[in-house]
Amino acid sequence: MKPRVRIAPSPTGDPHVGTAYMALFNLIFARHYGGEFILRIEDTDTKRSTQPAIEAIINGLSWLGLNQDDEIVFQSKNIERHKQVAYELLEKGAAYKCYCTPSELDEMRKQAELEGKNFKYPKIWRDKKADESQANLPFAIRIKAPVSGEIIVNDLIRGEVRYPADDLDDMVILRADGTPTYMLAVVVDDHDMGVTNIIRGDDHLTNTFRQKIIFDSMCWKMPVTAHVPLIHGADGAKLSKRH
Ligand code: GLU
């Protein structure tokens, strides 16, 4: 099968050299195997995404000769589809409605902090049904993460990587305001776009375990991943604008 790869920058600021770096790996991989390289603009964060940032990404990549092979995909156009998948997961019993309010969650977060623990949603609504008085209240949709075992990913660069399932939260896939989270949108788009390989920075490795839960719950094949080490400055720190 010919590979289809993508880069998926979020247009929330000036283009980062990391975007060009990842585009280079993806493009070379696609060219080497006679596949396709796609640009997907992840513009669902309407507060932080800007038109100048979108243009800067497109013009920057074109100036570098890192041209995509197909039409640019704008993630914001797929929101209805993301929602549909969230409801499909709900119907399958792979996700559930969580009626916890932001203040209740804040309270739990503070409590965990006081106890010096990392906050993990205590799965309150996982096996609970809303009664009549609650049924009309706003709810988020959370995925049911496996409670035991390990999530295993065979990465082209890292080899076999494992993560204890118990350490992963029942993450929100659809917020109470009806907007999809990054984690859901990425999985749905990668699947729908026929992405075969996800080549991205290794700062995304923990997201990969989370995203695998969604792929598995939908019985979708997970693209093969390759997590590339990030570029670091001379001081050893992850490259940032101050460099
Ligand atoms: N939009 C994400 C970012 O800019 C990338 C998502 C991905 O490559 O899967 O970090």
What would your notes on this structure say?
The protein is of the alpha/beta class and 243 residues long. The chain is 33% helix and 19% strand. The protein has 6 helices and 10 strands, in the order βαβαβαβαββββαβαβ. Strands 1-2-3 form a 3-stranded parallel sheet. It has a 3-stranded antiparallel sheet with strand order 4-5-8. The chain has a two-stranded antiparallel sheet with strand order 6-7. A hairpin with a 3-residue loop joins strand 6 and strand 7. The chain is globular and about 60 Å long. The protein binds glutamic acid. The site of glutamic acid (GLU) has 7 residues, from loops.
Set out the fold topology.
Blueprint: E1 4-7, H1 17-32, E2 36-41, H2 51-63, E3 73-74, H3 79-92, E4 95-98, H4 102-114, E5 140-143, E6 150-155, E7 159-164, E8 172-174, H5 182-192, E9 197-201, H6 205-217, E10 224-228
Parallel strand pairs: 1-2, 2-3, 9-10
Antiparallel strand pairs: 4-5, 5-8, 6-7
Bound molecules: glutamic acid (GLU).
Glutamic acid binds at residues 8-10, 42, 186, 200, 204.
